[in-house]
Amino acid sequence: MLVCILAVASAIGTVALAASLFRKLGRGTDDRDPGGPSTGHAGAMLSALFLLVFAIAIIVPWTTADAARQNTYAEGEAAVQTYWASTALPAPAASAVQAQLRGYLGFVLDKEWPLMADGRLSLEGSALLNGLRSQVTGLSVTGDEARDAKSAVLDALANLSAARHQRAADARTTPPAGVMALTILTGVVVIVFPFLAGARPRGMAIVPLVTMAALLGVGTYLAWDISHVFSGGLAVKPEALRAAAQEIQRIPQIPETPEKPEKSGKRPTTEIPQTPRAALTPQGR
What we know:
Structural class: mainly alpha
Largest sheet: none
Distance between the termini: 97 Å
Strand content: under 5%
Oligomer: single chain
Number of helices: 8
Radius of gyration: 35 Å
Shape: elongated
Number of strands: 0
């Protein structure tokens, strides 16, 4: 803030010093004409400054919203990959992981997404995802296939967690501080500049000025409306996660308990246990 005040004071001091110095040196002529070179130069610079600030106020939220939208698709893809990877886990663990993942997506779509308009995520959503990762991490599996499946699920959950963290960062993202205030300030100065320069438009001459003021007001409102990623005109919608939830419903679910083999017409057989070696020795007989 101090640097900004010093920059403004230095710029104003430069203008005052130049005007005083050139007056003492007798260089140039007095310029009181509203359409003179001083007014023309200042008007052109004010217009350029307004366009620069207005472009920042539009481009920064636009690109941020586009990046956040792409991240939601990456998050949805990570959720689908996690679900597919969980199908290779042992049956009880697989069904539990799939049920928790469906519950997590449902929570994000129904309860968490509206909160992001205020720039925050739910702590309950983080707890659900962390609990799911802890559950998979604590699984005790045997066999190479089961261990590989567990590793695949953990990798997919890591990607899902990273996408969630990015979504949290996107929800907190806003344009640089002061951009909107400077947009409004420069817009007001551009509107009243002809009057400041000494012009008094009358009749039809004021129509273009009123039209410009109205359009500047609309543009400033639009810049404010899109300043947040998850609200306003460019708000990121949950289509990606909703599509992921629908795709998950089409993936075969693992039953909680292994299915019993169907009965056949064959006569059941009884397995005879192998005789221990010790029973075959003379001492075991």
